[in-house]
Design brief:
With 201 residues, the chain is α+β, with helices and mostly antiparallel strands. The protein has three helices and nine strands. It folds into two domains: 70 residues, Phosphorylase Kinase, domain 1; 108 residues, Transferase(Phosphotransferase), domain 1, CATH 1.10.510. It has a four-stranded antiparallel beta sheet. It has a three-stranded antiparallel beta sheet with strand order 5-7-8. Helix 2 runs antiparallel to helix 3.
Length: 201
């Protein structure tokens, strides 16, 4: 039997329009449009939804104000069981033609590297940087999204992880994520960032 759409979530009364953006067995993402603007609503689904929601909110609070990463929507009315994020507009990099040309690559590589560096300075590792998790805004600026798998460096467990157990999207994992290492590499995300913007080449 194919995947069936989950029952519609409760929509806040202030949302004049709800635009579906993504849905899987674990997550539903919509854009809530009101008279004063729009926000992105992310709803974790499934038996561990509450735990995953608390975890991602904690990570996003740690990254508050960081350049180039998703931000919690300031001043938005709450939406139960979901995370409300600032809407940067644009589309996911995965919807672009790959590999990017030199001009497109140059415009994304620098800002994306700075975003990853800023995230690492705050002690956060994304662990799933791939084209689907990079939104390019209407102004051409990249923004890292989806911190569901993110963790703090202090809780990273180094050592061998079999490819069937690796956290993240396998084609975009840095090599050290699937090989035995004695020390967690704080630059883990940089090789995957390059693969993300070059289509894995």
């Amino acid at each position: 039997m194919g995947f069936q759409r989950k029952a519609a979530s409760w929509d806040p009364p202030w949302a004049a329009r709800v635009e579906p953006l993504h849905e899987s067995e674990r997550t539903r993402v919509t854009r809530l449009v009101s008279e004063v603007g729009s926000v992105i609503r992310k709803e974790p689904l499934g038996p561990s939804a509450r735990r995953r929601l608390r975890h991602e909110v904690e990570i996003l609070e740690r990254l508050s104000g960081a350049e180039g990463v998703a931000q919690l929507a300031a001043g938005a009315a709450p939406s139960p069981g979901s995370i409300l994020l600032a809407d940067v507009g644009g589309t996911a990099l995965s919807e672009s033609v790959m590999p990017l040309d030199r001009a497109g690559l140059g415009g994304l590589a620098g800002p994306l590297a700075r975003a990853v560096a800023g995230m690492h300075r705050r002690g956060v590792m994304h662990r799933d940087i791939n084209p689907a998790n990079i939104v390019v805004s209407d102004r051409g600026a990249p923004c890292l999204i989806d911190f569901a798998l993110a963790t703090r460096f202090t809780v990273v467990q180094p050592g061998f992880v079999h490819h069937t157990e690796a956290v993240g999207t396998l084609p975009y994992l840095a090599p050290d994520r699937t090989r035995r290492r004695h020390v967690a590499d704080v630059l883990t995300s940089l090789p995957s960032s390059r693969a993300s913007v070059t289509g894995g080449r």
